[in-house]
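anyone seen this seq b4? input:
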Amino acid sequence: MTLIQNLTATEISLLIPMLIWTLIWKGIALWKCGRNNQLYWFIAILILNTLGVLDITYFIWFQKKTKTKRLSK
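predicted toks r here
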C-alpha cells in the first residue's frame, strides 16, 4: 500500500492547504531569486521544503531591494 492510501481524511484535509501554502511561497520566492540573480538562494529554496519559512525569511531579510523611480511633476 502506498503512503497516500494510509492517510485519513483529517490528515488529507491538513495536507492539501499546507501543500498549496508551500507552492505559492516557493513559486514567488524562486521567481524573485531568479530575477535577482541570487543562485545560492534559488538552489536552497528549490531543494529545502520548510513550509514557507525559508521563503518568507528570504523576502524579509535577503531579497535585493529594487529602487523605485519617482515621477517628478
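Residues 21-61 form one domain. Residues 9-35 form the longest helix (27 residues). kinda curious what u guys think
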